[in-house]
Design goal:
The chain has about 350 residues and is α/β, with parallel strands linked by helices. The chain folds into three domains: about 120 residues, 3-Layer(aba) Sandwich (Rossmann fold), CATH 3.40.50; about 160 residues, Orthogonal Bundle (Arc Repressor Mutant, subunit A); about 80 residues, no CATH class. The strands form three sheets. The protein has a five-stranded parallel beta sheet. The chain has a five-stranded mixed beta sheet with strand order 9-10-11-13-12. A hairpin with a 2-residue loop joins strand 12 and strand 13. The mean pLDDT is about 95.
Length: about 350
Amino acid sequence: MNQLEAFYESTPKPAGFIERKTEIPSHTLNLYGAPKTGKTWLVLDYLSKIPKKKSLYVDLRDLRIDKRSVAAQIDLFVKSNGIETVVIDHYDGSFAVPECTQTILVTESAYTKNRMMPLLELHPLDFEEYLAFQRRHINLEHSFSYYLRTGSLPSMAATPEPILTIRLHENIRSIFRSDNEILLFKLMSRYQGKPLTVHQVYTGLKKEHKVSKDWLYKTVKSYEERRIISWLPKYGQPKAAKRLLFYDFAMPASMYFEKSLMGQLYKIAAAKLLKKGQEIFYTDKIDFLDPASRSALIISPFANQQSSAAKISRLVDEIDSFNISDITVLTIANSFEFMFEKTRVKAVPFYEWTVQD
């Protein structure tokens, strides 16, 4: 049992851990989430609060281990040492989990083979969390500008500006491990926050590169399962193209020299709304529609009151159709408020809106 004993005696310490909004409860669960969102650090911090002899942390991506040996011995090892909490990082379902008081499986895709196991998703850093990670915080506006450039992964928050692109591309190469996957990611990056279908992706990619349709559809599906991408549907049109959302907004932006501010802002806004559990959609004229609350959100970085009034006037049909009572306009720095007939319109700077409850 040398391998398990080694893990048992030397659980890594989460040096410099910064608190997250997500907390691990004291019961069995599957902690899942996209790559590099901080899942390992979160469980190691949790284990640091448990008596050392009562827990076991095993990382299945550790190159020193033989998984077959671990699978054959872990159940007996846990029982003979009186271990109460077992964490299996990068769990791949290749062996049964040991019986103990608490088991935590750490994965990218949600582990659904055991439907009784509670799921806990760890999201990338929202702007509030990012402020805790950022060492150079001066004011909200400046920090938000840097957030746009670094993205939402914990390891990027304190990265010096001269090497931002280098670090972002290192992350991309570690997540997308083949040339074809990087090509696919680069093509899809063009559509961050825009309507897209997988068929469009295939048509665009096959023009210059030889890829099979089966491979592409399977790969895109795996990105969905690993929480790398998600989709925002169009209201009332389930078969229409959905808007593409990457889990981190800075990596796609780093794939081209041209700026992609709207795509980044769209993803940040979507992440906040979806994290609150709102069922949101897009329409032909509205960036985010919440039918349940009769509210809408429009991204207009450089809007002022006059331009916003003109824009809202072009939404009369949709305002009436969806009986919209409130419209929020997200800007870079401007704030104002007015009534458009019976609809309240309020403009808020992005950096303020992202930290509001």
